[in-house]
């Protein structure tokens, strides 16, 4: 026997499938993968249907009119690392493995006169039991139009799948911001494919609509270069679209192409776009691959500019992504450094452009005028406002807290700390505990300003403010979190993702201590 032997490394196929599928945590990722595959199949129409079965399981049906799949394509669909794509987001063959996190997968596809039906039973259960699931394929002749229908029953991801969180509003916004359904490819190629995306949810999930349809092309807010008047609202409605640019560089002998497009806009202009979360997580500068936004690189904007006013996407096919496609993987590659450097130079030119400089000066000018107008209010006017109907009406946090201490019992009014530079601007001593509170004259303004809820154990407000706005949050959500406001026995409670945050309405306290 020879002293030296040759061995080939082995791969645990089951563990590989489990690990790749487990990398995909969010149920939204299934939608993202389906949209990418339909777009690659040159579909003109794609439909996402989600319903609940009688046993409580979820059924997700994905239908498109693309060119369908043959036997080799079906193998790529079910195999791991056996994609037929040579480039693009799905070239590694990882994405469709998210479908394995279910009880049943069924694919019906028509391609070149043949209909193929492929089925896989209990893939997730089998993988977790150490069994590699198999699938069957049946072929019949067909005169139907080409296309594909994928049915997933009993889908689950992460800590569990709650289909009732997939409302029309959330799905539509996610598709627009985080998938090929929000592509900027048309900015560079007017002939790029357009795909209509329809969402259908059963009434048990969301009965607010029968269905909604949207294009896969991301649309900028309406361009408005000059204000009609020097008011804050007018300035915040300004928007400028910057000319798309394609930059080609050579890095270590490799060709790198960077496509950059975007706009600068005030808050009111940005709000023309329905967003998936708060503005700080949506706007700024994005890296993208295949025109799907991946991660922000807001550091490419100089610190003296507010990145919220910018929305730019830098698309680069040479970027490599992590398995779940949430991050850029090749950051140690010189290509990544080159891309970031070019984006930084591009954003410097935007910030130095004549329009942007005038926009920033106009914003500062209007802010100064507004501050001067606020400070010029006469003492008599303030006194009159503060004594309206015999009850002082606070116009700022300090005045609100004066009223709070005047009309609360000793325990509730024990303020330990006040700060002006935090969303949690008050610390209260309640019994033996320190409690974080957010004090704001009008409760709805906290949510309008998209402040963080981290550390907020209580709200203190003069009044609730715009109840219609708060009710709209209940219908949609607050920065991706479920929101509800309840009135219980003279008490007001905000419920965010199931966590109750009590609300102290100081105006009600004054009515109790000074009844008519």
TrEMBL record:
The keyword ATP-binding applies. Keywords: ATP-binding, Nucleotide-binding. InterPro entries: HATPase_C_sf. GO terms for molecular function: ATP binding. Pfam families: HATPase_c_3. This is ATP-binding protein. It comes from Halogeometricum borinquense.
